[in-house]
Design goal:
Layout lengths: L2 E6 L8 H14 L4 E6 L1 H4 L6 H17 L7 E5 L5 H10 L4 H5 L2 H10 L6 H15 L5 E3 L5 H18 L7 E3 L34 H9 L17 H14 L3 H7 L5 H27 L2 H30 L6
Parallel strand pairs: 1-2, 2-3, 4-5
Bound molecules: tryptophanyl-5'AMP (TYM).
The site of tryptophanyl-5'AMP has 26 residues, from strand 1, helix 1 and helix 7.
GO molecular function, one term: ATP binding
EC number: 6.1.1.2
Keywords: Aminoacyl-tRNA synthetase, ATP-binding, Cytoplasm, Ligase, Nucleotide-binding, Protein biosynthesis
Amino acid sequence: RPRVLSAMQPTGASLHLGNYLGALRQWVALQDTHDALYCVVDLHALTVQVDPADLRDRSRRTAAQYLAAGVDPERASLFLQSHVPEHTELAWVLSCLTGFGEASRMTQFKDKSQRHGSEATNVGLFTYPVLMAADILLYDTERVPVGDDQRQHLELTRDLAQRFNGRYGRTFVVPQAHLPSATARVADLQDPTAKMSKSAASTAGLVDLMDDPKVVAKKIRSAVTDTGREVVHDRAAKPGVTNLLDIHSALSGEGVAELEARFAGRGYGDLKKEVADVVVAALDPVRTRTLELLDDPAQLDALLADGAERARGIAGDVLARVRERVGLLPAA
Ligand code: TYM
């Protein structure tokens, strides 16, 4: 079975609707047809200063949310990045193949370093995409289900794999991004030209998977819509309505054209009300299940330990190949 791997950062209090529709739902679908590995990238989370107790909580919560959303530990391996030290070792080797200019051109790094200023920007933020490339290449990964904002990092990963293969002989599988067609970039409800993001200044435009159903409904009812009153899908002219239609369609399975027809002559208020119902119906079971799973951290930790053991089996083989190729002597 072809291999799929993906990961999320345990930053922010919880995952959000963008993470869910952009990536997590694809993970669940792909585990049926692929050999799946899903990782919580706790080392990546260290690039922003985080309280150690919070990091522990968030790592468990992220893993619990994967499971609650439908990742099945019988079919997919679930693990923490820091439990597989091969990731950081491969990241070092890959960093020696990465151009300084190349890394400087990563738009997420440019955005973040501009926002914080260069003194407050740490080197981990700069080499972040190289560690991500290691996460992927360490498992001979063929497909990487992610949202649109990870596309450039995936391109870098492919470039590094090809560069390594060119220099040292065929070693890595060159992975492909797997993006959902309509929800690769779920927009912020308050600013529909921006993506829904954990680092947004306000949480009013973000549906958190742990939000109470009443809060979810309120956020959607308060979503910024566009001028006019017609419910039509038009990303340029009506980004707010388009975002709501895409969210509805992705969760209800109803086509966008059918939704437009059904809401013809009705206002934005009706649309929002229905989107709120659809989102609550989808997310409330995820929230409830997450809370149940968090009640038994020992079981969660045991699952993560199993996942890490399986991951290390694969990662160890690939890393041994890399060490040999680049000329590192085996320990006698
Ligand atoms: P992260 O933690 O920021 O986001 C996790 C996943 O959610 C997707 N996503 C979105 N999709 C649609 N609309 C949105 N508004 C939205 N916001 C986030 C992201 O594209 C991502 O798929 N660098 C990665 C984590 C990572 C990784 C990896 C991913 C580390 N190693 C290896 C894949 C493979 C990140 O920060 O994602």
